Amino acid sequence: MTVRVRFAPSPTGYLHVGGARTALFNYLFAKKMQGSFIVRIEDTDQSRYQEDALTEIFTSLTWLGLEWDEGPEKGGSYGPYYQSQRLELYETYTQELLESGVAYHCFCSAERLASLRAKQEADHRPSGYDRHCRHISLEEANKRRAAGETSVVRLRIPDDETIHFVDEIRGEISFTTNELDDFVLMKTDGYPTYHLANVVDDHAMEISHVLRGDEWINSTPKHELLYRSFGWAPPKWVHLPIILAESGGKLSKRKGAASVMDYCRRGILPEALFNFLALLGWSPGDDRELLDTAEMASLFSFSGISPKGSVFDTTKLEWMNGQYLAHASAERLVEEVTPFIDETVAQFPPLMEAVGLLKSRCKTLQELGEALQLLCHDPQEYPDTKKVVKALKKNGVEALFSDMIDLVSECREFAAPVLEEAFSRYLSEKELGFGRVGLPVRIALTGQAGGPSLFELMEILGKETVIRRLTRCRKYVLQNYSEAEK
Questions:
Q1: Which parts of 253-361 fold into alpha helices (H)?
Q2: Separation of CA 253 from chain center
Q3: How far apart are CA 437 and CA 422, in angstroms?
Q4: Which of 23, 25, 15, 24 is nearest to 60 (CA)?
Q5: Quick check: bond before 80 cis, omega within 30?
Q6: Residue 483 has what pLDDT?
Q7: Whole-angstrom Cα distance, residue 21 to residue 240?
Q8: Which residue numbers belong to the known binding site for ATP?
């Protein structure tokens, strides 16, 4: 079988992480099987269409590395790839169903349908269409339409039949046709519903496997009936497990389903989000968690997908992103971190060295940007924490800063090994532990009590900056902590 899979987003909002996971699984399966990954835009809901949403969908897929083989901006032999440009095709197949008697025109008004639904709810009965127009012949319907009446087209659901289909993850699933109502295929505005357009397009584009969220399981018997009505063979069904919110329940916009580009804006690397999403519901078969795209594609299989939902663990995502940051080149990260730093930091001469020093200590590009801001700007204040205050209030700290200023000034080669050796000699002469000196010096340089290697930090900052910050902190101590306070 030639594998052809599709991701068919609707441009009515941003691409959230659940949709991205669906696209990603389609992409991995296509790569595994050396097939085609197709993007198709389902834009038949014109009332909710958003141009900006369409642009963001393309941007999100491209940013994640999910390049499609066919679709918008790529072309292909099965286009057009916008449903709004395929209306004649849907009309042709709708007429075929009407003429075969499988479908019929329904003239019920929105008011009647609302009244019917309200009565069913009041009587505690399942809601659904009551087949009021099912008896209308095609000839009569055409006359009424010619006279100006509007209608929708519904599928005529058979009674008392069982629909069987196989889900590649869950096995055989069955529904009875008595659970279905005569659903709408074509709306009054001439646009198809999702059910009709989806089936027609998947057949026309020779889609071999449909990978989609498990919320579509209940719609699959409708699609099976449509395939049967047309005399077409259905694709293989693969319904992916839901993603759960950390607070419980299905991940949704209300429960943290942020857009893909929101994670970009938060400083997550695309390969980290790709890796994280791939492992939401799928296992490569071992304990590995960090895999590149080629590894994931080679290992991907439906047998590795669990039908159970997976929790979207933000802490785990940030940990994974930290791993990718640590292994990324400083040269690349200088470009990636640009949105998170100001112009002064961007023009900091040893910026690449600073990124290389800090990247393994950060979980996101935003954190890296904040660390660079602290590193590249003179501290404007010193945190009022117990550890910092205790370090700056110690007796003799002013003299220590004076000694450090002298020590730094005398270093002819301002390199980390030379600085470390000079510090070691000073500590030995004064019989002091490293913490007694290193902590206040670090606070003076960054305004923080923790951070990367002190000597590498000093080398990156340079002699002039180090002396200026030590002098400033010494002055601060003299002004704020009198001998009486100590």
A1: 260-265, 270-278, 293-299, 314-327, 330-336, 343-346, 351-358
A2: 12
A3: 12
A4: 15
A5: yes
A6: 56
A7: 9
A8: 253
pTM: 0.94
Angle ∠(6,7,9) on CA atoms, nearest 5: 145
Q: What are the tokens at 339? A: 């949105």
Whether 253 is catalytic: yes
Paired with 82 in beta bridges are 41
Question: Would the pLDDT of 485 be above 60?
Answer: no
Which structure tokens are listed for 338?
């640009």
Report yes or no: 275 and 320 within 8 Å, Cβ to Cβ. yes
Kindly state the average pLDDT of the residues 409-415.
95
Find out whether 130 and 116 touch, Cβ atoms under 8 Å: yes
End-to-end CA distance of the chain: 81
Can you say which residues are annotated as belonging to the binding site? Answer: 106, 108, 133, 135, 253
- Is residue 372 within 8 A of residue 358, CB to CB? The reply is yes
E strand residue ranges, 2-48: 4-7, 36-39
251 contacts 17 by C-beta, under 8 angstroms: yes
Task: Give 162-215 pLDDT, tens digit per residue.
Answer: 999 999 999 999 999 999 999 999 999 999 999 999 999 999 999 999 999 999
Per this entry, what is the length of the chain? 486
Q: Which residues contact 171 (CB under 8 A, 6 or more apart)?
A: none
Q: Which residue(s) pair with 186 in the sheet?
A: 153, 192
Give the residue ranges of the annotated binding site for Zn(2+).
106, 108, 133, 135
DSSP state of 75: B
Least Cα distance to 210 among 221, 228, 226, 198 occurs for 198
339: Cβ contacts below 8 Å, ≥ 6 apart = 265, 365, 369
CB 390 within 8 A of CB 479: no
Mean pLDDT along residues 71-94: 97
Q: How many CB atoms lie under 10 A from the CB of residue 30? A: 25
Q: What are the pLDDT digits (tens) for 276-335?
A: 999 999 999 988 999 999 999 999 999 999 999 999 999 999 999 999 999 999 999 999
For β-strands 209-213 and 236-240, DSSP reports them as parallel
Q: Name every residue whose Cβ is closer than 8 Å to that of residue 100 and which is 6 or more positions away in sequence.
A: 229
Token pair for residue 388?
């910092």
Q: In this structure, what token pair is assigned to residue 262?
A: 């929101």
Structure tokens at 271: 């390969």
The continuous run of DSSP H or E covering 172 comes out as strand 171-176
Candidates 74, 119, 143, 253; catalytic one: 253
